[in-house]
Write a structure and sequence with these properties.
Elements (H helix, E strand, L loop, with lengths): L7 E9 L7 E9 L2 E7 L2 E8 L4 H11 L11 E7 L3 E8 L18 E2 H13 L3 H5 L3 E6 L5 E7 L2 H14 L11 E4 L5 H9 L4 E4 L5 H10 L2 E7 L2 E6 L4 E2 L6
Parallel strand pairs: 3-6, 7-14, 10-11, 11-12
Antiparallel strand pairs: 1-2, 3-4, 5-6, 8-9, 8-10, 12-13
Amino acid sequence: MPLSDPPTATVDILRLGGEEGGGEDLRPDLVIREARISVYVNGILFSETPALAADAEAYARGILFFGGWADTGGAGRISIHLTPGDRVLRVDAASTEPPAVPLPVPAPPGGAAFREEAIYDAVAALSGEPSLYRLTGGVHSAALARADGSLVLRFEDLSRHCAVDKVIGQALAESRIDPVQSEGFLVSSGRIGADIVARAARARLTLIASVSAPTDRAVSLARAWGLTLCGFVRGRRMNVYTHPARLVRDDPAG
């Protein structure tokens, strides 16, 4: 059953080539075990996606939050039940209230600032921890970082969206999301599209950092909604696409 299955499976592969440019080798290799999570609200299918079966409740809370079935203070209004099957995990959520329209609002001016060094540290920590990516190369990672760059929550999944959904769903369950401005910032290993910016804005996070690139739509929305968007964060370099005033620059001489 998905809840108890390991996240990887072993398959036999034929490895061709190599440093010396020739040869072949039959060997076992690890791949990600793909499951499917189906989320139902009051018996009606709300979302269905391929994902890692682990941490399905966090995923369900995240996806329902973005769909308007819960707000930052409303996690308790949702009752979630997990039904594991053969590679399919059904999540039944019961709610007594209809969904609200989940419109992100612009981040308030001012507020928390983030040290440049903290951004570098958070992205390095996301990449440096033991991970399924190192074993298989088949997942994305996302995390919620504190203002000092240390990671509070970290998840991996088949897609960057599922990883972010699990991070914010768990943050919601732990009351880490504030209706005005949440503490910390979102870190991702994947491309930042408009949907990721919308997730961060809905969770009242004011900064996103990624090792990868944003899209033009993501930049436009981040600018409009007051989010600082940092891409290509690698080593001690990054591109800041929007609202750089929220960053506290490190003193090169210091």
